[in-house]
Every structure is written in structure tokens, then in C-alpha cells.
Amino acid sequence: MSTTTPAATASTTPPSTDPAPPSRRRALLRRLFAGEGFVALLIVVYVIALSPFAQGMLSERNLLNVLSNFWPLAIIVIGQTFVLVLAGIDLAQTAIINLTNTVGALLVARMLEPTLFQGSVLWNSVIGPEGGPLGGGWPGIVLAVLIVVAIGALLGSLNGLAIARLKMPPFMVTLGTMLLFSAVAVWLTRSENVTGLPEEYIAIGQAQVWGALTVPAIIAVVLGLAAHYILSRTPFGGWLYAAGTSRQAAIISGVPYKRVVVTAYALSGVFATVGGLLYSARLEAGRPTLADDLLLDVIGAAVIGGVSLFGGKGSVVGAALGALFFVVLSNSLNLLNLPFTLVFIVKGLVIVAAALLDVVRTRILGATR
Amino acid sequence: MTRFRALTAGAAALAVLTALTACGTTGGTGGSTAAADQDISVDVSTDLSGKRICFGFSGSETEFWAAGIKSISDSLSAANATVIEHNSNEDPNRQLEQVRDCITQGVDGIIVIPEDGSSANTIIKEANDADIPIGIFNRPPATEDGAAIISVADNRDVAAQTVQYLADEATKLGRPVQPLIMVGNLSDQNAVERRNGFYEIVDANPDLFLTPIEVQTNWDAATGQANLQAAMQANPNVDVLFTSSDFLFPQIQAVLEPLGKWKAVGEEGHVIMGGLDGDNRACGLIETGYVDATGVQDLFSEASALLDALGTAIQDGDSKPDQTIVDPGFALTAANFGDRSEDMWGCVITPPAS
After folding, report:
1. Nearest to A360 among B6, B20, B84 (CB)
2. What's the CA gap between B245 and A279, in Å, rounded?
3. What digits encode the pLDDT tens for the residues A307-318?
4. Low complexity composition bias: which ranges (chain A) (predicted)?
């Protein structure tokens, strides 16, 4: 790199009388705030700063814990990225998780206590005392996973259709379906957790292949690569960014806007479903309230990762790094043994800071990806 | 300039965050919202000096849980242990992560009030894999898988004793009566056993009890109140009401009062009522005659037995103690109130803020 840049020459004079040219200053800020570099740096600085105080933070066991917490959240955040890039938001992701993880567990459960479930509308049709219809081995498990992923896609598509066809605001649509889908999950199970899951199903969320390489890791990496390819290498990805930057301009340019919206929300539903299955499998139960507290983590992680709430900006790598930051933050606060209230204060501040950062980024970078 | 003001504000927010984080590294305090001025510790036979105990709980929304959390925390501190408290705010996934983070720190023992029976099993497995002894307070695991010290009340028998008193009172009416049960979250074994105890007495008295009305509460006050309201609308002739937890009495009062059914014993329209837990509110309501009986869990005995067993396991190097300690409990009734009220924790301690 050259050392005789205009800035270096300018340094011999007082800054107040000869500031760096605006374009150069903008370039520096752009480099600092744009994309994934900033988040990666933030994680490294945070870990270095906190590790002397947080016992065991850099131990092998803790790194495995962090990774175990990271994979499902990363998948869900990447799903959210599709709709945030589109200048939308999917508040119903958590409800889709609640519903699909519950249905998945009901389908594969090996036994169900009549006292708990005989009031369910599915009793004696889909489920019974002997459990669900698909708990008898790998073929059944795979089929159950495919069914719930299809349900996730369908629920996401319903959101997308309401937004694209009926021109309803994404916030209101997904807020409403968040309540609706969660209520259906509670209704199906009468608010009971579904236990008695087969080992094969639990393995999806827990099985270790080699060292830190686990089944959730493989699933997350495969989905992450696929999402990255879709966003950065396909026309659909380009349409998403275009529609998120300026809907009218995109429509005039020939972007099939309605189809793009429906597909983005469907993908959000699919990714939420898979992430929820991993959470459910590691807890060894289907839970109709599994993701009730997850929404702020997802949105916060996405925004920290550089996915703009204003649309048109964001990447899969950034979203994943945002999820990693949130997981590391949560992990470190636990290791610091902070009081419960302070943990929430800190997390709240981080989310506010992330929103502020989004504003700053938008002002500095404009609509740059 | 505006951009730099925004940048400065962003940096300031992050600085506050970092400062808050750094300031909080005192460890082991907070979490419980219990009253600070009353010592409700129990004796722990083992000196736990130098030992670090992870204490995870899922929330302190009722007097029983608030008092239990404070008692365990106070007792561990009195035994010179360092307590690492984690409140998961009723999120089982967060509780699992908190326990794993405790294991990372190499704690000597773990005590958990799990969110429910199935998550208790998952957490026990984590502790067993890490060779750290674990105790489960008052909310038993769904299955017997894994090794843990479990301290729990005999919920079925305590409920049965309480409902038997209600049945005895109902018999005096000389006619069949309409019972109603407010059921807790049935993924919690405690709720299942309390319901079983209720039906044990109802089934034993077919000539006395009509078919019971079940009201789901899921251990949630708002849900319980809404469902009870609907049930009373449909069945205004309820004579006997049993709530699976005392903390719902204010909601019951809110529903019964407008219907003219919140009456003391001896008044026309009194609903024969009982609960379970033994909290301060139930104590006051039995004393004033609005409630007839409550099943008492001996909170201090359960805490003491659990801490003794865990302390012994830590001292002996037993990483997988496997033991179930059952608190027999008893029913405090309007009839034995004078003799036994001092045995009920809710009558002798100031209720911690819940």
C-alpha cells in the first residue's frame, strides 16, 4: 500500500484547516462499518476484553457450548435476513417454530399420555396412546421433517401472500399470525410438552460426528451456503435487494415483486422450522411455547450482523456473525454470573445499540449492500 | 456533523453496555426478588467452604417459589458456599444453556428448579455427563432416567388429604355437590399428582360428588382467571372448589365476588374451598374463614433435605447421587388451624416479593 497518499501529505498540516476529503473519510467509515468485518472485529474485541473476567470462556467445553447454541439461532437469523433485505420483517418466525416443532414431535412421539393429549383434536386420528404415526425409524423421521418443513414454508407463504397480494404491512401481518400460529400450537397440544421422542429424532439436534462437527453444524452450514448462494448468485437474490432498496423502481424494472415477497417469507418459514427442530431435538421435547422469548435475539442478531431494518442491505455471513455475537454475549453474561435483571438490561442495550448502528450505517452507506 | 453525533451516540451506548457488563462481575447475587430482611435459611449439615454451587431456577412468580429460592440461596451462603444464581425466566432452552455455562465454570454441585419434568431430565443428563452432582427441588423429572437427588412433596397424598376435608365439609350439606378443580400445567408432574389426589377422593365418594368441572390454568394467573370465569358462567352451581396452587386465590376471589359467592364459612352461598402449597395468602384466608383447607408442602424440610444430601455427595466425591426425598406434607384446615398453623411456612414467614 502506498504511503504517499493525499491523507499522509495532509497530515503535516493542522486537521482543522485541512480535513481529509469527504470521499476519503467516507471510504474509511465505509470500510469500518460496512459488512461483516465490523461484526467480526466486534466479536474478537469483546471476547478478548471479557475473557479475563468470564471464567472458562475460552475453554474447549465452552467453545462447544457456544457452537451448540449458535447453529439453531444462526439458521433462524439467516431466514429472517431474506425478509429484512426485502424491507419486511417476520415476527411470526417464533410462532412458526412453536407450531412446527410441536407438530414434528407429535408425529414422531413413541407414546402419548392420554390424560394429557386425549383432549387434542388430533387424538385418535393422527395421534394416540402409542404416539404419532412416524416414530418407527429413519424413514418416518425423514418424512416427519419434510412434512414440518413444508408446513413452515406454507405458513411463511401465507404471510407473504397477505403482504404481497393484499398489500398489508408486514409488521401487522406477522404480528397477527404470530398470535394465530402460537395459539394453534397450544390448541393442538392443550399447552402440553410432547416428550417420548425417538433417538433418531433427538440425534438431529445432538449427534456428534467428529469433535465439534455435529449434525446441527452440518445442517446450519449447508443451509447457510445455500442461502448465501441464493442471495448473492441468483437473480432471485438480486430481485430481493432491488425490491428492498426501492419497491417501485424494482417493479418498473421487471422484478416479479409479489413472487419475490412470497418466496422470501416462505424461506423465512423454512429456516425458522429447521432452527426450531434443532432446539426441540436438543431439549428432547416438542414445546408449543419453545420460541416465545426468541424474537428479540433474532432481530437483534440480524441487525448487528449488518442486515438493515430499512431493507436492501445484508448478507448471510453478516447474519451468521450477528447470531454468533448474540450467542457469545449471552454466554459471557452467564459466565460473569450476572443477575438476571442486568442480563436483560445489557441485552436490551445491545439491541438498541444495534438499531442505532443500523441508522448510522444507512446514513453513511446509503443503499450499498 | 449529524453523522458524527450519531456515531458518538452509538459509541456511548456500547460504552455503557461494556461498563455495565464489567460492573456486574461480582457474581452470585441477585436473581431472586425475595425479601432481603428475613433470614429463611435452613441448616446444612456440611460445610461448603470453597465450594461453588450453581443454582438455576425458572422464575419466582409465586410465594412458594420465591420463598424456596430465597431459602436455598440463604442456606447455601450460610454454609459458606459461593452461589451462582441463574434465572431462566421460564425458558427451558435458556435454563439448559445456563446450566451448561455453570458446568464450564467447573462448579462443585448444581441445584435446579426445572421449568418442567422433561427439561429436568435433559439437565440431569448434562450434569451426569460432566460428573457433577445435581439436586432437583420440588419439581420432579418426567422419567427416572439419570441420577439426581430429588426433593419433592407427596403431591397426590397432600391433595387427597385436603380434598378429603372438603368432602367432609360437603357431606354436611346433605346433598350431592358440584366440584371444580383448577388444574396446573400437566407437563409438570406436581400438577398431575395433585389432580390425581383430587380424583382419588372424588371417585371414592360417587354419591357425594357430581362430575367435576376442570379448569385449565397452566400455572398462569391470567389464564386461570379467564377460564374460571367462563366455567362459572356455564356452571354457577359450583359448591366445592379445589385449586392446585394457592397463588390463584386472588383470581378466584375476583371471579366469585361479583357472583356473590365469595363468602366465609357459615354464610349463605359459601363455596367450600381448598388449595395446595401453604402460602401466606392461604393462611390468611383460612384464618378469616374464606378458605377451608390447604395442602402444605414443607418448604424448609424439602430444602434442608436436598442441601444435606447434595453437601454430603460433594464431600464424599459422589458425582452421581441418586436419591428421592419425599416430603409427606399435611393438610392445614379450619379445624386444625389453631394447632398446626405454625407448621405451615406461609403462616410464619413474611412473604418474599414474588
Report:
1. B6
2. 30
3. 988 899 899 999
4. 1-15
